[in-house]
Write a structure and sequence with these properties.
Distance between the termini: 15 Å
Strand content: under 5%
Structural class: mainly alpha
Number of strands: 0
Number of helices: 4
Low-confidence stretches: 90-99
Length: about 110
Protein backbone atom coordinates (compact mmCIF):
# COMPACT_ATOMS: atom_id res chain seq x y z
CA UNK A 1 0.00 0.00 0.00
CA UNK A 2 1.37 3.40 -1.01
CA UNK A 3 -0.02 6.39 0.84
CA UNK A 4 0.63 10.08 0.27
CA UNK A 5 -0.70 13.37 1.57
CA UNK A 6 -3.76 13.33 3.83
CA UNK A 7 -3.99 9.54 4.08
CA UNK A 8 -0.35 9.17 5.08
CA UNK A 9 -0.57 11.98 7.63
CA UNK A 10 -3.66 10.42 9.22
CA UNK A 11 -2.07 6.97 9.39
CA UNK A 12 1.21 8.20 10.87
CA UNK A 13 -0.65 10.29 13.44
CA UNK A 14 -2.75 7.38 14.66
CA UNK A 15 0.27 5.04 14.56
CA UNK A 16 2.24 7.43 16.80
CA UNK A 17 -0.66 7.72 19.22
CA UNK A 18 -1.01 3.92 19.38
CA UNK A 19 2.73 3.46 19.92
CA UNK A 20 2.82 6.10 22.67
CA UNK A 21 -0.26 4.60 24.36
CA UNK A 22 1.56 1.28 24.76
CA UNK A 23 4.57 2.85 26.47
CA UNK A 24 4.97 2.40 30.22
CA UNK A 25 4.83 6.09 31.15
CA UNK A 26 2.38 7.26 28.51
CA UNK A 27 0.87 10.74 28.94
CA UNK A 28 -2.38 9.68 27.26
CA UNK A 29 -3.95 6.37 26.33
CA UNK A 30 -5.74 5.97 23.01
CA UNK A 31 -7.42 2.58 22.93
CA UNK A 32 -9.02 3.26 19.54
CA UNK A 33 -5.64 4.09 17.96
CA UNK A 34 -4.22 0.79 19.24
CA UNK A 35 -7.24 -1.10 17.89
CA UNK A 36 -7.09 0.53 14.45
CA UNK A 37 -3.32 0.12 14.00
CA UNK A 38 -3.51 -3.53 15.06
CA UNK A 39 -5.76 -4.17 12.04
CA UNK A 40 -3.56 -2.46 9.44
CA UNK A 41 -0.82 -4.21 7.50
CA UNK A 42 1.60 -1.40 6.75
CA UNK A 43 5.35 -0.86 6.96
CA UNK A 44 5.77 1.75 9.69
CA UNK A 45 9.59 1.71 9.60
CA UNK A 46 9.69 5.25 8.17
CA UNK A 47 7.52 6.51 11.03
CA UNK A 48 9.73 4.71 13.55
CA UNK A 49 12.72 6.72 12.36
CA UNK A 50 10.96 10.10 12.46
CA UNK A 51 11.32 10.97 16.15
CA UNK A 52 10.59 14.67 15.56
CA UNK A 53 7.21 13.82 13.99
CA UNK A 54 6.43 11.49 16.90
CA UNK A 55 7.24 14.18 19.47
CA UNK A 56 5.07 16.67 17.58
CA UNK A 57 2.08 14.32 17.49
CA UNK A 58 2.42 13.46 21.18
CA UNK A 59 2.84 17.09 22.24
CA UNK A 60 -0.06 18.27 20.09
CA UNK A 61 -2.29 15.53 21.46
CA UNK A 62 -1.53 16.39 25.08
CA UNK A 63 -2.06 20.13 24.57
CA UNK A 64 -5.18 19.75 22.43
CA UNK A 65 -6.78 17.25 24.80
CA UNK A 66 -6.17 19.56 27.75
CA UNK A 67 -7.49 22.64 25.96
CA UNK A 68 -10.54 20.94 24.47
CA UNK A 69 -11.32 19.12 27.72
CA UNK A 70 -11.28 22.37 29.67
CA UNK A 71 -13.42 24.11 27.08
CA UNK A 72 -15.99 21.31 27.11
CA UNK A 73 -16.18 21.49 30.92
CA UNK A 74 -16.95 25.21 30.71
CA UNK A 75 -19.27 24.87 27.69
CA UNK A 76 -20.86 21.39 27.85
CA UNK A 77 -23.24 22.05 24.94
CA UNK A 78 -20.55 23.39 22.62
CA UNK A 79 -19.64 22.28 19.11
CA UNK A 80 -15.96 21.90 18.32
CA UNK A 81 -14.61 21.67 14.79
CA UNK A 82 -11.07 20.34 14.44
CA UNK A 83 -9.81 20.66 10.87
CA UNK A 84 -6.62 19.19 9.37
CA UNK A 85 -5.54 17.35 12.51
CA UNK A 86 -4.58 13.91 11.27
CA UNK A 87 -6.71 11.80 13.56
CA UNK A 88 -6.35 13.76 16.74
CA UNK A 89 -9.35 13.04 18.99
CA UNK A 90 -9.90 10.03 21.20
CA UNK A 91 -7.16 10.30 23.79
CA UNK A 92 -7.45 11.38 27.38
CA UNK A 93 -11.13 11.23 28.12
CA UNK A 94 -12.38 12.59 24.81
CA UNK A 95 -14.17 9.70 23.22
CA UNK A 96 -15.96 8.96 20.00
CA UNK A 97 -19.71 9.31 20.67
CA UNK A 98 -18.96 9.17 24.37
CA UNK A 99 -21.42 8.91 27.23
CA UNK A 100 -20.76 12.59 27.92
CA UNK A 101 -22.39 13.47 24.60
CA UNK A 102 -19.11 14.14 22.82
CA UNK A 103 -19.15 13.02 19.22
CA UNK A 104 -16.30 13.16 16.76
CA UNK A 105 -17.11 12.97 13.05
CA UNK A 106 -14.52 12.54 10.33
CA UNK A 107 -15.48 12.94 6.69
CA UNK A 108 -12.45 12.93 4.47
CA UNK A 109 -13.16 11.72 0.92
CA UNK A 110 -9.77 10.00 0.52
CA UNK A 111 -10.30 7.92 3.67
CA UNK A 112 -14.02 7.38 4.00
CA UNK A 113 -14.48 4.42 1.63
Amino acid sequence: MILEGVEKTMLLTIYTKAKHSKEKNHKFYDEKAIEVISKIDYDFSMAEKDKLMQMGVIGRTIVLDDMVGEYIKMHPDCTIVNIASGWTPVSTGLTTAGSDGTMWIWKIPQTSD
